[in-house]
Specification:
Blueprint lengths: L3 H5 L5 E2 L4 E5 L9 E5 L3 E6 L5 E6 L7 E5 L4 E4 L10 E4 L5 E5 L3 E6 L4 E7 L5 E6 L5 E6 L4 E5 L8 E3 L6 E6 L5 E6 L4 E7 L9 E8 L10 E6 L6 E5 L4 E4 L1
Antiparallel strand pairs: 1-7, 2-3, 4-5, 5-6, 6-7, 8-9, 9-10, 10-11, 12-13, 13-14, 14-15, 16-17, 17-18, 18-19, 20-21, 21-22
């Protein structure tokens, strides 16, 4: 349920002049057009599907740990007037005006038009690390530092539909393929696991989740492993980036 405290801590329209600065670069010889300098380290960024908005997450527990940049108008807004704790990641819904905010144990979903929180998902893990939204928008996966991956069917419940523990160390990145029924999870155990995740149009059928392949190749690191992964937009390929400084392409 939506608490009164969460209902108040929603989208604001405050400017962020003290938290970031825009530097239009014109026709830079290296192809640069805009530079945005933040006052804290940027830990995550995500694009809106229409390409006009860019949301960033910073390592800051204040209300400015999340900023939304309007690329067309060259301005920025902080969406929350109260701190949401340590925000791990944010994502835009693929086809609705919803904004997903992942914290340590919850995923809060905000309606950007109504400026209100519409749902609060319970991750059921000790410390969430990353998330990805299915291209159809009704399913969500969350990875955690305690090795678990949880799958939400948001039409069913605010609690996970399925919990998978396939990795031996912390999960650092998860992603869905935009066209194929696949998702990936990358971990500090230097592996990326590809899983078949079929979502049916028939709402009576539950999603089908079946592990397919374990990808390896990155060199061992004393602390971290595979830090990120991203699928090719049209091909059944995946790129992974590791703490060893290498980017691998698997086809």
């Amino acid at each position: 349920e939506l608490s009164s405290e969460d209902d108040k801590a929603v989208v604001s329209t405050q400017s962020t002049g003290d938290h970031c600065k825009w530097y239009p670069l014109g026709n830079d010889k290296d192809g640069l057009r805009i530079k945005i300098v933040h006052n804290c380290v940027v830990s995550n960024l995500t694009w809106h599907n229409n390409g006009s908005y860019l949301a960033v997450t910073m390592r800051d527990s204040s209300s400015c740990s999340v900023l939304i940049h309007n690329i067309i108008k060259h301005n920025s807004q902080k969406p929350f007037n109260k701190s949401k704790g340590q925000v791990q990641q944010v994502e835009f819904h693929p086809n609705k005006p919803f904004f997903f905010v992942l914290s340590q144990r919850y995923v809060r979903i905000y309606n950007l038009v109504k400026q209100a929180m519409v749902r609060k998902l319970i991750c059921s893990v000790k410390w969430a690390s990353c998330m990805a939204i299915h291209p159809k928008g009704d399913n969500l996966i969350v990875g955690s530092y305690d090795k678990a991956l949880v799958w939400f069917d948001m039409d069913l419940s605010v609690k996970p539909y399925k919990t998978l523990v396939q990795h031996k160390k912390a999960i650092r990145s998860v992603s869905f393929h935009p066209r194929y029924p696949l998702y990936a999870s990358s971990s500090d155990d230097n592996s990326t696991i590809i899983t078949h995740g079929m979502v049916y149009n028939d709402l009576v059928k539950n999603p089908l989740v079946v592990p397919v392949k374990v990808l390896r190749g990155h060199q061992d690191n004393t602390k971290y492993g595979v830090l990120s992964n991203v699928f090719h937009p049209t091909q059944p390929w995946i790129y992974t980036g590791g703490a060893d400084g290498c980017i691998w392409l698997y086809v």
